[in-house]
Design brief:
It is a single chain. With about 200 residues, the protein is mainly α. About 80% of the residues lie in helices and about 0% in strands. The protein has nine helices and no strands. It is globular.
Length: about 200
């Protein structure tokens, strides 16, 4: 089976699952949630930078998805649709809190990850330090560039899918795509040089 056939088969399966969900099939709904919960949680976490908040948000997002399933497009457009709901819920959450976490703050997830046991503690620590550096650099980007990195580079969406989520013309996204990666690289470099200068 070729890549195109697999994609069509996957789309047909999702279409069938969505139809069953709309008919009130609880098993189909559980299957749908299991398939997308990690991506929804991940997206929420990149916005709110707090594990508990992201977990609560993911639950709220799926409640909204369930209530709006009849408005849901076909399988081909499902992922951008659910990500748009997740993005809006995350932004609403941040507005309610009226403050973002400081970019230099180490999240609970980073602390727990660094504390985990590993067969190679030094390698594990370096990997987690790089992830923490990336997350801090990401939070320093302009809002549009940050969202572009999250949606395109982390979640793997196309520019066409992103335009419906961000309400930004595709021409703007095309011109900003490369700039967003450059800005992220500059922030990562600046933070890493700052750590070296501090003797970390």
């Amino acid at each position: 089976m070729g890549a195109d056939e697999r994609a069509v088969g996957s789309q047909l399966n999702l279409d069938a699952v969505l139809d069953r969900c709309r008919c009130g099939d609880e098993l189909a709904w559980e299957s749908l949630v299991r398939s997308y919960q990690s991506r929804v949680y991940g997206l929420a976490y990149h916005y709110v930078a707090n594990r508990e908040d992201a977990r609560d948000l993911a639950q709220d997002i799926f409640v909204k998805v369930y209530k709006n399933l009849r408005k849901c497009p076909d399988a081909n457009h499902f992922l951008p649709w659910i990500f748009r709901i997740a993005r809006n819920a995350s932004i609403d959450h941040l507005r309610r809190k009226r403050a973002r976490p400081p970019s230099s703050q180490v999240s609970e997830m980073e602390v727990n990850s660094i504390a985990d046991c590993s067969s190679d503690p030094e390698k594990h620590w370096l990997m987690e330090a790089r992830r923490g550096l990336f997350r801090r650099a990401l939070r320093m980007l302009t809002r549009l560039n940050r969202e572009m990195i999250i949606l395109k580079e982390i979640q793997g969406l196309t520019l066409e899918e992103m335009t419906g989520i961000l309400d930004v013309p595709i021409g703007t996204l095309k011109s900003r795509s490369h700039r967003a990666r450059l800005e992220l690289a500059e922030k990562v470099l600046a933070l890493s040089q700052g750590q070296e200068g501090a003797g970390l």
